[in-house]
Design brief:
462 residues, alpha/beta, FAD/NAD(P)-binding domain, seven-stranded mixed sheet, 16 strands, elongated, binds flavin-adenine dinucleotide
């Protein structure tokens, strides 16, 4: 360790970061944005130095450099298609957070650059889609499109935030009772540095967060909850086969009217109402029209996967040349997952057929096959460090704090207790906003559970 060197962005004698945020993807940037100017924030991102340190089954699914590692952003704020989780937040496993998250979802849409939040029924109405949708017995769902930003031009980079690029969190040191982080060890181009800190937000992605917990943080002596890394959830993307979408059908018109990517608007999809899903024993899957590689209209299904402890992230036992322990990812669809997804796709497709609009023509048995051009793995790893009240079955509390370490906060889709149907960034950002707000409330509380030094640092900045 080079104790003399001062990392770029620090002044001599100032080797402390009241709040350290590791990771500048959507989760980390959203936290920084909310905390900036209220607390002293240092925001680091491994950037080009990130080596996902994963030798598992993650396929290289994309040639965008910041995604090549397969884990998401990496120096980018990626909204892309943002999906509203809808009534998923009312599920009991969301611990009553739904009402608190809804205003944050609105803020998140604005922050991500989605032009406006059109309530799905209003979109359907305005674009002449309400009637065929009503006839089909399916409810509209909404995807919106947002631009991709890079660290440096992000809204998070503002007064009160020290940003260190190409710098990664490598380990931590704990208090004598093992219940708090006292120091973070970060490694940048100019060497390794030991930084005193009051709170750490780990926002390095749903896979890397697990690797850091099971690797360096456990090695520092922290007790890491048993559930860490277990129950990884992903989305299946399938094509509905056995049906043909004829030219000029209402499904095609729906696609054309709702899908307005050119102006960065939204895309519409359809789903069974919650009561119907529950009655039929199905999960939250959506049917969406899309244009296939050959130019013809198709129907696709984005499917929710059930949590399964066999799907997990863990340390492989191998170490890279840099001494970093590798993570391994085991993920697959169970026979039950596939069967439920098939039933769901058939149910939704047959409702479209029976709407009487002649929207689809049957070509045989309705079934599902992997979406052409889209892998079954969609790059939305979720629920690897889920929230919950019980430290035996969950990893963080409803505010994102690790069970057992009072000043380690986890952000990102890893904390989702259920994954829903797709595209997590909107919810990642909303959850991060709420988490940051809760952190500020705690800091401001006269006799809160937070450390006195954090309160001092907050007071000195306001
Ligand atoms: C091909 C692809 C397409 C996608 N499309 C969409 C989409 O259309 N809509 C959508 O909603 N979602 C999409 N996603 C998912 C989305 O990108 C992720 O859910 C999101 O980026 C996760 O945000 P995050 O901030 O939790 O993590 P990430 O975005 O993964 O960010 C983690 C950051 O941590 C940094 N980091 C890693 N290790 C360290 C360390 N030790 N120290 C410091 N920094 C570290 C990384 O460099 C990275 O910048 C897509 C993902 C992929 C792969």
């Amino acid at each position: 360790m080079d104790g003399d060197a001062i990392p770029v962005g620090f002044r001599a004698g100032e080797m402390s970061a009241r709040v350290l945020i590791a990771g500048a993807g959507p989760a980390g940037c959203a936290i920084a944005h909310r905390l900036a100017r209220r607390v002293d924030v240092t925001h680091i991102d491994a950037g080009t130095r990130v080596d996902l340190a994963c030798d598992g089954t993650l396929p290289a699914i994309c040639d965008e450099p910041y995604r090549a590692a397969g884990a998401g952003g990496g120096l980018a704020l990626w909204g892309g298609y943002c999906a509203d989780p809808g009534d998923d937040l009312d599920r009991p496993e969301w611990l009553g957070l739904g009402p608190e998250l809804r205003p944050c979802l609105t803020d998140a849409l604005r922050w991500l650059g989605c032009k406006r939040h059109l309530a799905a029924p209003a979109v359907a109405q305005a674009r002449g889609l309400a009637q065929p949708l009503a006839l089909s017995g399916l409810e509209p769902r909404l995807w919106q499109f947002s631009p991709v930003g890079e660290i440096g031009d992000l809204p998070s980079v503002q007064d009160g935030t020290r940003v260190l690029k190409d710098t990664r969190l490598v380990s931590v040191e704990l208090s004598a009772d093992g219940r708090r982080i006292t120091h973070a060890v970060i490694e940048g181009k100019d060497g390794t540095h030991r930084i005193e800190t009051d709170a750490v937000f780990l926002a390095t992605g749903a896979i890397e967060n697990v690797r850091i917990l099971l690797g360096p943080i456990r090695a520092a002596g922290a007790r890491i909850p048993e559930a860490t890394g277990r129950g990884l959830v992903e989305h299946g993307a399938f094509q509905v086969t056995g049906l043909r979408v004829p030219q000029g059908s209402w499904i095609e018109r729906l696609h054309r009217r709702a899908n307005d990517f050119g102006t960065g608007e939204n895309a519409l999809a359809m789903a069974l109402a919650k009561s119907e899903r529950e009655r039929l024993g199905l999960m939250h899957d959506v049917l969406h029209p899309y244009r296939g590689p050959d130019g013809t209209m198709r129907l696709g299904v984005m499917s929710e996967q059930a949590r399964n402890p066999a799907n997990r992230v863990y340390l492989s036992g191998a170490q890279g040349d840099d001494g970093v322990h590798r993570a391994r990812v085991d993920w697959g669809l169970s026979a039950e997952d596939r069967e439920r997804m098939r039933r769901s796709a058939r149910e939704m497709a047959m409702r479209v057929v029976s709407s009487g609009s002649g929207a689809l023509e049957s070509e045989g048995e309705v079934d599902v096959a992997p979406h052409p051009g889209a892998p079954v793995w969609c790059g939305h790893p979720t629920s690897t460090t889920p929230m919950g009240h019980d430290a035996r079955s969950s990893v963080v509390d409803r505010d994102g704090r690790l069970h057992g370490l009072s000043n380690l906060h986890l952000a990102g889709s890893g904390t989702f207790p259920s994954a829903g149907w797709a595209n997590p960034t909107l919810l990642i950002v909303a959850l991060a906003f709420r988490q940051a707000d809760r952190f500020l409330e705690d800091q401001a509380a006269p006799t809160g559970s937070s450390s006195a030094s954090s309160i001092r640092s907050l007071n000195s900045l306001t």
